[in-house]
Amino acid sequence: MSLPKDTRRKIIRYKNLGYSNIKIAKMVECNKSTVGRFIKKYDKTKSFDDIPKKGAPSKISEREKRIIERKEFNSKKEIQDFLENNFQTKVSLRTLDKYFTSNRDKKIIRKK
Known about the structure:
112 residues; mainly alpha; 6 helices; single chain; rod-shaped
């Protein structure tokens, strides 16, 4: 759960006034570690906004995705072999399943 912006502003205001993290936590009614974490993030970014989370890098590059979307394949195994032979990209069938799940509107595999 993230802190509301007004609470974030209060934390920084109280910190600038010299209050300790424990005292600030009591005043804004949250955990002292939450206060410390937010102050650390604020010192780094100078922003009250949330920092976007980063996930693991995609196994399939954007270029490879575009090529897959333009070609017609009969199966996921055929796509897997195509990626390995043409781009030296090894992907599991599970990775391809995740890709297809997130791109349901795209007709990539030809219906027989």
